[in-house]
Give the backbone structure.
Amino acid sequence: MAGTKTFTMIKPDGVESNNIGNILQMITDAGFAIKAMKLTRLSTEQAQEFYAIHAERPFYGELVEYMTSGPIVSAILEKDNAVEDFRTLIGATNPAEAAEGTIRAKYAESIGRNAVHGSDSDENAEIEGNFHFPVAEVVA
Ligand code: CMP
């Protein structure tokens, strides 16, 4: 059975363009409950660790530099079928390919500056959520 939790970040471009409120509105309108949330800024070491799975990709350096370039909002979200439904809500990684009405179609600038992150599996949702929020911080 699909899990009920996913993890998201509103990336530096989404914060810088003043779309925190608009993006959170779309998330809660879609039926997700916010179980933990913070405005934070990643250190280079944190961004490298978070994106370690992409370490061999040509865009890794650029990704780490971008994700540390300004504040982000990280959050744990809850809903039935959370991972898949959230990925549908945010749209394709490249906003040029994102379906109309999705968060990335509305607010993302490019494949690198793509406004939001969404976990790609239940396992990664757990790992990524724990990375940003020690268990004690999550609201029951
Ligand atoms: P996300 O799904 O949050 O996690 C990996 C990120 O790498 C992805 O979002 C994109 O922002 C970024 N990414 C993927 N492909 C490219 C690319 N070709 N160039 C730059 N960034 C990319």
